[in-house]
Amino acid sequence: MGLKTAEQYVASLRDGRVTYWDGERIDDITTHPRFRVPIAVASRDYAYDDPKAAELRSFTTEDGGRAHRIYQIPRSEADLAQRVELMYHTSIVGLVSGVYMALMSVKDAVAKVNPQYAANIEAMYRHARDNDLRAAEVITDAKGDRKRKAHEQDDPDLYLRIVKRTDEGIVVRGAKLHITAASLCHELVVMPTKGMRQDETDYAVSFSIPVNTKGVKIINRSFAPAELNEFDYPASAHHSIPEGFVVFDDVFVPWNRVFLAGEVQLASIFAQSLGLWERTGGLVEAVRMAEIFVGLAQLVTEQQGKDRDPIAQNSVAELISYAEMLRMSLDYACRHCERTPSGMIHPNVLAVNVAKYYYAANYHQMMRYVHDLGGGLVITLPLEADFRNEESGQYLRKYLRSVPGVEAETRMRVYNLIRDLTADAYGGWQFVVALQAGGGLNAQRIMMHRTYNMAAAKAKALAAAGA
Amino acid sequence: MGLKTAEQYVASLRDGRVTYWDGERIDDITTHPRFRVPIAVASRDYAYDDPKAAELRSFTTEDGGRAHRIYQIPRSEADLAQRVELMYHTSIVGLVSGVYMALMSVKDAVAKVNPQYAANIEAMYRHARDNDLRAAEVITDAKGDRKRKAHEQDDPDLYLRIVKRTDEGIVVRGAKLHITAASLCHELVVMPTKGMRQDETDYAVSFSIPVNTKGVKIINRSFAPAELNEFDYPASAHHSIPEGFVVFDDVFVPWNRVFLAGEVQLASIFAQSLGLWERTGGLVEAVRMAEIFVGLAQLVTEQQGKDRDPIAQNSVAELISYAEMLRMSLDYACRHCERTPSGMIHPNVLAVNVAKYYYAANYHQMMRYVHDLGGGLVITLPLEADFRNEESGQYLRKYLRSVPGVEAETRMRVYNLIRDLTADAYGGWQFVVALQAGGGLNAQRIMMHRTYNMAAAKAKALAAAGA
Amino acid sequence: MGLKTAEQYVASLRDGRVTYWDGERIDDITTHPRFRVPIAVASRDYAYDDPKAAELRSFTTEDGGRAHRIYQIPRSEADLAQRVELMYHTSIVGLVSGVYMALMSVKDAVAKVNPQYAANIEAMYRHARDNDLRAAEVITDAKGDRKRKAHEQDDPDLYLRIVKRTDEGIVVRGAKLHITAASLCHELVVMPTKGMRQDETDYAVSFSIPVNTKGVKIINRSFAPAELNEFDYPASAHHSIPEGFVVFDDVFVPWNRVFLAGEVQLASIFAQSLGLWERTGGLVEAVRMAEIFVGLAQLVTEQQGKDRDPIAQNSVAELISYAEMLRMSLDYACRHCERTPSGMIHPNVLAVNVAKYYYAANYHQMMRYVHDLGGGLVITLPLEADFRNEESGQYLRKYLRSVPGVEAETRMRVYNLIRDLTADAYGGWQFVVALQAGGGLNAQRIMMHRTYNMAAAKAKALAAAGA
Amino acid sequence: MGLKTAEQYVASLRDGRVTYWDGERIDDITTHPRFRVPIAVASRDYAYDDPKAAELRSFTTEDGGRAHRIYQIPRSEADLAQRVELMYHTSIVGLVSGVYMALMSVKDAVAKVNPQYAANIEAMYRHARDNDLRAAEVITDAKGDRKRKAHEQDDPDLYLRIVKRTDEGIVVRGAKLHITAASLCHELVVMPTKGMRQDETDYAVSFSIPVNTKGVKIINRSFAPAELNEFDYPASAHHSIPEGFVVFDDVFVPWNRVFLAGEVQLASIFAQSLGLWERTGGLVEAVRMAEIFVGLAQLVTEQQGKDRDPIAQNSVAELISYAEMLRMSLDYACRHCERTPSGMIHPNVLAVNVAKYYYAANYHQMMRYVHDLGGGLVITLPLEADFRNEESGQYLRKYLRSVPGVEAETRMRVYNLIRDLTADAYGGWQFVVALQAGGGLNAQRIMMHRTYNMAAAKAKALAAAGA
């Protein structure tokens, strides 16, 4: 119990979990090349040794133990600021494990309906926290035909559902899609994908089970082949995490791990508890990336000697504007944080949704500015190996020279990062992630309508209209 | 000395100023119908009687007197917040008078070059403050051919310049354009329109003179005819302020009113001292208007019974997003305020420029959403008189009925405000104001490049690129 | 019978029609100042004397008479080209009178249901054609609550309906909105606003009646006051046409003027017969205006000496692109025209809808480019009277000088046209017209879905997907 | 001599050319796995056997021989239409070989300066045509610091230049970038990258040499690893063509292959002769792809049961609008084709530039619509191998079920094509290709300014302004 080392984390993944990738059933992911980078990424969050990292990454629980700070429930604006700072330095595997912290925010509401469920949430939160576990957010159902409700589908399993209830627990069947890092976690925290109606009782279900539970199967997918060279792929050589298509083939869940089993009135608060934190995570990443895009845009412009070109300056200014609007809105969301009845602090809901929407809605256009600045070399630049090859490399060194003080190698690195982030497998994947992670544009529009103070706006408009 | 009443303000405008409008030389603007609304607007800032208004609008100077708060030099974040609150309740005539407060921010820099100029700034600031004067920001030159510098123009007067220097003062000649409220102020505060080069000595000039100084002539223009009905024109019936084309026909300025006369190295800091506050004012107005646009969009949608229409909801959400991004960035600009060497507090320069840019660059598109929601009635709705006429009015009452609880009159008022703000003379004028007031898009892009921490962005990009 | 002179047209408007404007019931519109410009506009279409105009504007009917070409039913691509050329030179009053020509396109379909209706259409077409009448397109109902169908409204009259049927004819009640030029026409051609369901029988009604029919009342509205100076308002001084809010207060329509009275299955083809031609008219106007916007943008740029400024060139290029995409798509729509079963030729439906959509969806953004180029003088330029006034005029002549060869007066005219078209009452009105005339964005999207060859696109996509 | 077979083409590539890829010097590209797909793509253009293909792909020369139609010089609108049809069915290797045909359009202008150059062009055209060769367009220089001209660079070789002139020919040195298909062609046709000034004599050079000429070295790059599975990569498994970084290390060119050697006044007409055809090719591809995007958007929407969702319909309509605007403008460009003095027909220059600009400027935004419709499965869908694996495949078949009649496999294929085209290595590459191929946005803006009839637009604007 307590904080794990990276080695302990890796060892803990050898637990018989059923994982597929590219048609292969992988028995031990810790030795499989496809999982080398993902496990390295996840392991970095277990680096507590350095005092500064320890301060950033861990906190003292109310029991006096040390736990990963992702499990800390923010109770003040300062806590929230610290959490945001943590997010900048935490992998997506760590971030999604905040799911238990989010669940704690609905505990009081759950307790009113069924105190046992609330107790289960609390117990699981402590179990995961105190064992330094990682947990995946398991939400999106297969959904089938969107025009029809869960129980109206041709196959009733197209939304994950309870197929059996016993004295010991429930048996569930279904599949959950886009489950980030499912294969790299210890627990799967399952939630309903949306609010449920009266007649969708079997679909209002939430629980947490170990990844190696019998009947759980994960089919993985990522943008990346196993190994990428870090010169040519400066970002994606380090950042790949697989998404899981997670199947529950009649999986048994004991009652003490169940958080919801039929109480449809609670389904939507479960579904929403995570969205805010997912989008906050997305926004933190957006702020981080947008600044890098500004830097890349300026570098590639300067390196071509075009930094006095008004059209180039215009494009860079658009990127600055994007980066700063994002940074300001994240700052606002944290300073204007909100408090739940039980005293948990979270970022301003409207602010996060508006900012995430702004990020997603404008991402493609911003990449157009980057691509306009970068020019054709973004995609036609030769590979590192050609640069290292003496015969061909001499030409690259000679002909990639531009303004004084800039090495051919530096230019190549800048071009490679632009390509990797915006115009290659990882970059292509990022377009969709920017738009869809944490819910697509429509999900944010719905939240804007729900949280905006429309009564005030209408009153001001009517007053201005003289009505 | 001290605060003026509205009546005293009006009386003070009868001072022999030379003002033209629509071909007429107007000897007394206080009795001319074209100036009725503008003077009423300006007079509202002199309403100090109500204690709440007094608190909002006035402050105690270091001499113990009371003065309009627009003259208060912010020395803390709280001062700045109070100033922003004031801006929401102050006319543009009051706002531009902040020019002396802005000048105080450059006083120290000026003192290093010429202490007398600095003393003049301080004296004029106190004079204006202690007499509750209004002062116009007089900046933009005629400019002639933009490819050529000031002294290269066919006519050397196309930028305002010093034509003579005497022991008593200087004589200036030229014209200044887009001078908001020139005819409604007591003082004209003249600044260089831009930085000046070595050979543009005569053009580096700044001073303050009374509006009725010999040789000053103002040609007025506004979007509005004299009188507008407030039912049909709910906004513009109350809000018109003329812009002045201000001519300096060999105007003498005594040395004690001169702030700059040839020291080219100071020209650009004068020119920039105002831009920030102009844009802050624009941003405050943007926040106020954007919320009203959301309210109007929602009202017109509900009143058509279309509030469940996804396309309509989408358009409203876009407007919410716009309004909130603006509100968040203004909040950020104030919380992350900056301090000059002499201890004056001002909004964050980068934040204000980015936010103003966002406002201006997206304004037209946002109006497209409003127009899409409003439909044809925005422009085809009959006038109030038709509504009041018994014969025709009965039909309007009958046929403008839509959802329960909404009166035809309310619908008309909502449509009228939409049209007035976005699709009529005032609305048309607003498109240009949104884009050009406080400097066009390019002016903000330049400031973004100047103030963004590009070194940090490049460093992060290079680190990410492995370079 | 035969072509009318302009004088005969004007005289024919003195027929007792009931018209209101600004609260006044106007007994003779031909002598009322508000109608001076509108009647002048409409009269221009009656100028047949000049041989070239006669050739453009009139054609020989199958009976050997001469009629306005707006009544000519296109039977070949050449006819269509001639009609488009005519549209460039015809007022909106003439254009809407094409309604009978459009009705002729549905005559065959109507005949299958009720041959008498078809005969009535043909007779009315000949009557209007042979008497050189003008007819308004009377379509949009008041609509009330959009969530409810016609017969579900609180007031059943919110969609125009048949309230009584007799042996002699029908009696109708309701109001029609946005009826362009209603007061300037001879006939009102009423159509259902949309397709009607089984239970909306009373609302499936179409007919034509004289404007002066008992019970018809028109409440007018335009963007413009009565008189505008043509220097300051170069466009709107000449172009105003009022929109009518047209009330049918138990109006009797004899059977021989009825085209539809309860046959719900025909309602939508009536409603659609006009949309195509309205949008074609809108597209012709779009092509005409877009070229003028390019010209204005370039002129205002050159006149500031900014024609070598890359940002300005970029904005002008965007406007060129807009103008040319519109011109090319109109050309395409005519060359790829379509033929009805009865041999009538009309522009390509998909092309017209796509092009109108492109026009409308991008109009606001294009005006942003114009406003960015124009700068503040677009709205702050003094008026003509100030220019003509000797005292103030001398300064305008002096200070509006810019590049060699450009007169101050020319600059003023260019600024005035920009303002008038984009940033004043007429310009504001144009934003809404661009978006809403001929149906808003959604109306065009619906038509795109209906007419696009989706089967082919899906087949190609599936083939490319290997499915 | 005459048409080659695919086998002859492949054999002809074994000629000692010096080619690098990923650090490896490849001696025989015809047996190297990286070249398998590219050579297969290029070989398809040599399929003349089928009579329909023969008709499409070949024509009878004036000498009575058969040649690939890419060499046919269009002399009528019908020829041009046939050429466009050919472009839809020709690989990029074939398309770029149109370079000689384009050169023929400048022959007359060249002849006026130096008849021998013109004769060389003609001879090379016939040589390539009559031997069914493929030729790369070798234009873009390394360029170094864009602020400086060719001869001002730190290294004079940053633009390709003549380093020596002898009686036998010239010796050139430099590098050319983004040379599509360089390794797959027989000839390299070198052109100046831009117009040249008086003092850039050595840089005004054009010639054609075999790829295996001594001193020529090609470093290849493509988006793709060697082999891609065609289920997971339905587009890119078939379409990869490498771009070449082509080095000229003191390459000797005999005089009979030189088209330009110092006559700076001709440089820009060489540079421009190709741009039009490159952009036409880009536009043809744009039309083809845009239709597929519409199909994919509609398929993915229907397969989720969301085809009645207004937001989805809106996104599809935007894609329809994009596809049709492109199709209409390509049609226009061909119908309004232009004739050179020597009688060669080419597409309308303004139309092609405007349409290519519209394509490129809106491509990113259109992909946003596709990504919004596709949702997360675009990137998280498991691979084919997981689908074929019995254990994991059963779950994919079960849980990817949605609306009746759609197989899981079909859904996977549709998602895979969307991902491959828009959100993976090939898709990322396509973003840059859309923007940069044939010259970036600015290149098209320049051509718009050059070819738009600005005088007419200004005259109309002035007339409308009353000036």
UniProtKB/TrEMBL annotation, chains A, B, C, D:
SUPFAM superfamilies: Acyl-CoA dehydrogenase C-terminal domain-like, Acyl-CoA dehydrogenase NM domain-like. Keywords: FAD, Flavoprotein, Oxidoreductase. Residues 5-260 form the HpaB/PvcC/4-BUDH N-terminal domain. This is 4-hydroxyphenylacetate 3-hydroxylase. GO terms for molecular function: oxidoreductase activity, acting on the CH-CH group of donors. FAD binds at T180. Residues 279-465 form the HpaB/PvcC/4-BUDH C-terminal domain. It comes from Vineibacter terrae.
